[in-house]
Design goal:
Two copies of one chain form a homodimer. In chain A, helix 1 runs parallel beside helix 2. In chain A, strand 11 and strand 12 (232-233) form a beta hairpin. In chain A, the strands form four sheets. Chain A has a seven-stranded parallel beta sheet with strand order 5-2-1-9-10-13-14, with helices on both faces. A three-stranded antiparallel beta sheet of chain A has the order 7-6-8. A two-stranded antiparallel sheet of chain A has the order 3-4. The mean pLDDT of chain A is 96. The first copy, chain A, has 13 helices and 14 strands. Chain A is 40% helix and 19% strand. At the A-B interface, helix 3, helix 4 and helix 5 of A face helix 3, helix 4 and helix 5 of B.
Chain lengths: 312, 312
């Protein structure tokens, strides 16, 4: 089955890894959030693309949840000694990605070309597309003003209360080449919204003109996997954001967030009562073990999602 | 005694280290070649400034003759894997220098400010100035065309025959702030031209408008130390270049190269016959052990040069 999946970093990348084990490379297209991208020390950093890249190529540090396995930190130590900014950790291995990507962007290559080549260099068969070759930057609104995403997420460790979001540049952005074609492919079997943060991982993708509309009209079923399990986020600030925004911290609220887009919704097996309740509203639901600890968990969830989609 | 020394990388940095042991920080100003500077992978690299910085701060890899002690190479391995250019070795520690310098240059800071801060961060007391804050690029002329310095030096390992040199940008360049003041200081005791390559380390400095004229009119004695010993270069392509340019590979030819600038010339002790011969032409000479194997050798040569200058 041909599948398009939308994802951000960690949580989304886990399901993406599962999908990449179940589907052949030509049958899997990932559309990855680049709203977190930022320039740091003059380097263009694409955290979600990199998390997906390291995860799918087997280079990720699974324990840590970000960065590369076997990473070393000589650069950071030397940078600190020279008085450089050290709030964002850049490992020696990881740095190669940022330096080479920045060089190629400066030479005029689109992010999607560089991404394609990087994933190919690391032996990843799936097609991975940044949501756009144009810069879109997620801005976090807080009572004390606006914060660039990485300042909120890494520097300030998600401490500021969130009052809203904007995606600077999104209005001028175009979907990366291949996205609308993949969504318009008559052989497409399903679209999966991975269990990523709906506000800062999936919404930036949906903010790129054309993508939301394409999801609304796509013939294949659109299936979301809830990132909220038992009223808590599996990882990251999703539940905290919902609380601060006055939204119930439930899978139901996630489904409502994607209102008008979904043909099916997958909740964690511990939320089966909620799934039954949601079904009464007309949304077709399924449950699965969605907390992915092992690689086997990821593959299993991918299979369950694809099976569910095949029946829709 | 107040001293200004002109130097390039390796050979010059060794004497600079000796001088920094003998003179207090406020009495030593180093003017360093930046004609070798280049942009690689989008990073501004200043090889001679860095060699001087690592040497004076005790961070240099003495065995290797370039780079830092305890360097690691994770970045290069990861870069190679991504298909990046790998002809120029960038160690993980060294990379911090290039990334932070590039960031600050892009923010509009002059190279001399950044250099001052870097040396201070690493505890170096001497004042170290790039020859200019403006870009000057050494170009190597060969029978097959022109080569940027690092392409000649590192990528092509000095193999191409040299027919001449140019210093692109030198006509528009100004000496870095502090250079002309240091040379015009009434308390200046001597100017030392370190045993660096006369063509590609010292000549770029002299090509910056104002510096050669200041050396001609400076009241303090100008003393050069020959980089040619017994008809051979201690290190690097100096002798090879002289051969290709049809210049005898002798200390005498080095003295002739600096014609009109020198008040004294120091040859290696193995060249004492040549020193006596040169004295008959009116150039005051001295001999010293100029091949510096140990730190003690560097300090000893520095003392000898300063003693010689004090008597001029």
């Amino acid at each position: 089955m041909k599948c398009v999946a939308l994802c951000g970093g960690v949580g989304g990348a886990k399901l993406a890894l599962g999908l990449s084990h179940v589907l052949s490379g030509e049958n899997l297209t990932l559309i990855v959030n680049t709203g977190d991208d930022f320039t740091h020390l003059g380097l263009h950093i694409s955290p979600d693309l990199d998390t997906v890249m390291y995860t799918l190529s087997g280079l990720a540090n699974a324990q840590q949840g970000w960065g590369r396995a076997g990473e070393t930190w000589a650069f950071m130590a030397a940078l600190r000694k020279l008085g450089g900014e050290d709030w964002f950790q850049l490992g020696d291995l990881d740095l190669a990605t940022h330096v080479e990507r920045t060089r190629r962007l400066a030479a005029g290559e689109p992010l999607s070309h560089i991404t394609r080549d990087f994933f190919a260099s690391l032996g990843v068969g799936a097609r991975v597309l940044p949501m756009s070759d144009d810069p879109v930057r997620t801005i976090i609104h807080t009572p004390r003003g606006e914060l660039a995403f990485q300042h909120y997420f890494v520097r300030d460790k998600c401490a500021p209360a969130v009052t809203g979001f904007s995606f600077a540049g999104s209005e001028q952005a175009a979907p990366a080449p291949g996205i609308l074609q993949a969504l318009g492919d008559p052989d497409l079997g399903c679209v999966i919204i991975c269990p990523s943060n709906p506000f800062v991982s999936i919404n930036p993708i949906l903010a790129v003109p054309g993508i939301r509309a394409a999801l609304k009209t796509v013939r294949a079923p659109v299936i979301a996997v809830s990132p909220i399990v038992g009223g808590r986020a599996i990882k990251g600030p999703t539940a905290k954001m919902m609380y601060e925004l006055g939204i119930p911290q439930t899978a139901e609220a996630v489904a409502a967030h994607y209102d008008g887009l979904l043909d099916g919704f997958i909740l964690d097996e511990t939320d089966s009562a909620l799934a039954q309740q949601l079904e009464t509203t007309g949304l077709v639901c399924a449950t699965a073990q969605s907390v992915m600890h092992t690689e086997q968990d990821r593959v299993e969830l991918a299979r369950n999602v694809l099976d569910f989609a095949a029946k829709r």
